[in-house]
Specification:
about 20% helix, eight-stranded antiparallel sheet, two-stranded antiparallel sheet
Length: about 250
């Protein structure tokens, strides 16, 4: 008997190539498309990482942008003084005094400060005694430097001299009787005259402290005060450090 159509001699169905159930493998993507997709993926990941870092940085430093800001801290130490010896310089008839002060200035800027802090050129240092009726004992010039936000700096051997200072007898007696006298230290910057003297601002930030000799760092306050225009030359300023008093070991 002849084999039925679509079957072989043993009666098994014949599967043609068109009826084969075997699927052909899909065609691979071109290499260029794969590279482009990888580049886009890497860029997206980097973008997310940088955005996260930016958000964290912003929230950790938001006070730098919007405030409130914390003030810069000034301290002054009177390391040593000469020319005010009670037995040698302050007793007897009123005489001329030649005091010298060895000062240390420290500036600490917090991380939440508004901007860098600078001791400007021409800033004067004035040392006075509370009962001297406004007569300075010594004057000098502060060093010029700046402190960035979050940093601190110390400047030692800031010299303030008094050249022929005359004080009343009662003030001399008070100074001699005071075993650990407290002195006022004031730093006064020059007026802001970037546009010429005619347009000067006579209001400046004055740094004031009260410190004792060898008493450690004394905190200072910063207050706005009016100064004379142009600034008056103060007597007693010396630039030589030949006789700078040194702290007692």
């Amino acid at each position: 008997m002849a084999a039925a159509a679509g079957t072989d001699e043993e009666g098994q169905p014949i599967i043609s190539e068109k009826q084969s159930t075997t699927k052909k493998p899909e065609q691979d993507l071109p290499a260029g498309e794969i590279c482009a997709a990888l580049v886009v993926l890497v860029l997206l990941i980097l973008g997310v990482v940088y955005l996260s870092i930016g958000v964290v940085h912003f929230f950790s430093h938001w006070q730098r942008f919007f405030g409130p800001y914390d003030p810069v801290e000034y301290t002054v130490t009177i390391a040593a003084v000469s020319g005010l010896n009670p037995a040698k310089d302050l007793h007897g008839p009123p005489a001329l005094l030649y005091p010298a002060f060895n000062l240390t200035l420290r500036v600490a800027s917090p991380r939440t400060a508004e901007d860098r802090e600078c001791v400007k050129p021409g800033t004067t240092v004035e040392v006075s005694y509370p009962r001297s009726a406004g007569v300075p004992l010594a004057t000098g010039t502060a060093p010029t430097f700046c402190v960035d936000v979050g940093e601190r700096r110390e400047e030692g051997s800031v010299i303030a001299w008094g050249d022929g200072v005359r004080l009343p007898g009662l003030v001399l007696d008070s100074l001699a009787a005071d075993g650990a006298p407290e002195f006022g230290v004031k730093l006064t910057p020059l007026p802001d005259c970037r546009s010429g003297w005619r347009f000067c601002s006579d209001t400046v930030d004055v740094i004031s402290c009260w410190a004792k000799v060898g008493g450690g760092p004394a905190p200072c306050s910063v207050l706005k005060e009016r100064v004379s225009l142009p600034p008056l030359q103060r007597p007693g300023v010396r630039d030589s450090a030949a006789y700078l008093p040194q702290p007692t070991p």
